[in-house]
Automatic annotation (TrEMBL):
Cofactors, names only: Fe(2+); L-ascorbate
PROSITE patterns assigned: FE2OG_OXY (PS51471)
Positions contributing to Fe cation binding: 95, 97, 155
Annotated protein name in UniProt: Fe2+-dependent dioxygenase
KW Ribonucleoprotein (keyword) present: no
Binding residues for 2-oxoglutarate: 165
Domain Fe2OG dioxygenase: 76-174
NCBIfam families: PRK05467.1-3, PRK05467.1-4
Keyword match Transmembrane helix: no
Length: 222
């Protein structure tokens, strides 16, 4: 399931993050790439420091409060947010994200996310291209909008040819490991909310709530 979520950040948060990003010193992104992803990774990333932590906490709060993200992804662990920058000539070629991340505590990457931080009209290229069963799909979202997609996919960031592309990226271990089960729960959640909006609490609504809760109980990996 690939989902685009608008307005993860409000304009104030976006402005604040943007001003911090433009005053930060970035490093070669190869430092955090797996051994073979290094071959195709050509971008810049922020090292962990106080400023990065401040921005991470803004993004984490935004993810916590976003109901669509919570329902679609069911996060158990979110890896520390990485802030990346692509200048003209930079790209991240086709790769798949590491299945397991971290050192002492391992996180399984179920879902990858890209939160776009630059206005799409401010740079050329820099699309996120995902290889799906329907073919290659290309995403270049508004600043403040985010895409979540299966970490199991091959994907790439195409070469930026003009301007600067800033983005925040991370990986999530979901409470629901199986993507098919996650989608069923998401559909049920969406349906019961719509039913509630139309008719309020009815016996049918109660039954969907019961089924939703029981499937969550059955499938939750906690
Ligand atoms: O910047 C993006 O949209 C994705 C980056 C990516 O694929 C990665 O860092 O693994
Ligand atoms: Fe990736």
């Amino acid at each position: 399931m690939i989902i685009c979520i608008d307005n993860i950040l409000n304009s104030e948060e976006l402005k604040l993050i943007h001003s911090k990003l433009t005053n930060s010193e970035f490093r070669d992104g190869k430092e955090t790439a797996g051994w073979y992803a290094k071959e195709v990774k050509n971008n810049l990333q922020l090292p962990s420091n106080e400023l990065t932590e401040e921005m991470r906490s803004i993004v984490m709060q935004a993810l916590q409060r976003n109901r669509l993200f919570q329902a679609a992804v069911r996060p158990k662990i979110i890896r520390p947010i990485i802030f990346s920058r692509y200048e003209p000539g930079m790209y991240y070629g086709y790769h798949t994200d590491n299945a397991l991340m971290g050192n002492e505590v391992l996180t399984r990457s179920d879902v990858s996310l890209t939160l776009f931080l630059s206005s799409p009209s401010s740079y050329v290229g820099g699309e996120l291209m995902i290889d799906t069963s329907l073919g290659e799909q290309v995403f270049k979202l508004e600043a403040g909008s985010m895409i979540v997609y299966p970490s199991s996919t091959l994907h790439q960031v195409t070469t930026v040819t003009e301007g600067t592309r800033f983005a925040a990226i991370s990986w999530v271990q979901s409470i629901i490991r199986d993507p098919g089960e996650r989608e069923i729960l998401f559909d049920l959640e969406t349906a019961r909310e719509a039913l509630f909006q139309k008719h309020g609490i009815t016996p049918e609504f109660d039954l969907i709530c019961k089924t939703h809760a029981n499937l969550l109980r059955k499938w939750a990996d906690i």
